[in-house]
Amino acid sequence: MRKATAFACVFVDVGGVLLTDGWDHHARKRAARTFNLKWAEMEERHVLTFETYEQGKLTLEEYLGQVVFYQRRTQRVSDSQVQAGQSVGTVANWSASVIVALSFLTPRKILGKSATFWWYKAVIHASC
């Protein structure tokens, strides 16, 4: 019978604390500038809609319809673009999680638990 391996720690990303959440107010501002959207109007619609989207009661396309495409725009989002964006986001998030998980124990031994958390936070913010 094989002996079970003990875990030293379990790494869990807490929604944008260590890794980016991908659609924070900085990202929304960049999107508003890039697509010539009214920032205040977009932000107000986001605040009213995002919790419902996060609860799974809206699809991404429905959320974007409420926040961005509620009026006629020259840009449109196709189903394939939405799916491609979701796929890229998922791969990026999982890749970053694997990198952090594989590199977590060494800084933890050197810096300690609390300092390691803040070190990862600083690295992520410096790279954005």
Give the key terms:
128 residues; mainly alpha; DNA polymerase, domain 1; 6 helices; 63% helix
The CATH architecture assignment of the domain at 36-74 turns out to be: Orthogonal Bundle
Distance between the termini: 48 Å
Assigned CATH class of the domain at 36-74: Mainly Alpha
H/E series, N to C?
A: HHHHHH
What fraction of residues sit in β-strands?
under 5%
Helical stretch count?
Answer: 6
Q: CATH homologous superfamily of the domain at 36-74?
A: Putative phosphatase, domain 2
Main pleated-sheet profile:
none
Overall shape: it is elongated
Taking pLDDT < 50 over at least 5 consecutive residues as the criterion, the unreliable ranges are none
> Could you say what the CATH topology of the domain at 36-74 is called?
DNA polymerase, domain 1
Class from helix and strand fractions: mainly alpha
The number of distinct β-strands equals 0
Radius of gyration, CA atoms, in whole angstroms: 19 Å
The portion of residues assigned to helices is: 55-70%
The average pLDDT is 76
